[in-house]
Specification:
alpha+beta, 1 helix
């Protein structure tokens, strides 16, 4: 199943969010801390930390390859 659930809130309110499974159709799903939507990683506190760290990691990988040339 490709459906993911993400609760978005501030850091101060993260502990007030429900952590129980949510029913979607016939399935029950646990909320994720990070989801992918149209190729963009979005995290639960909406600071895009996961997206930035993945981009930085990809840049360093390319730089390591260029260094060997």
């Amino acid at each position: 199943m490709k459906t993911e659930i993400l609760w978005c809130s501030t850091n101060r309110r993260q502990n007030h969010l429900p952590s129980a499974a949510v029913r979607v159709g016939e399935n029950y799903m646990l909320p994720s801390t990070t989801v992918r939507d149209l190729g963009v990683l979005i995290d639960s506190n909406v600071v895009m930390l996961s997206r930035v760290s993945r981009t930085v990691s990809g840049c360093f990988a390319v730089l390591r390859q260029l260094r060997s040339i």
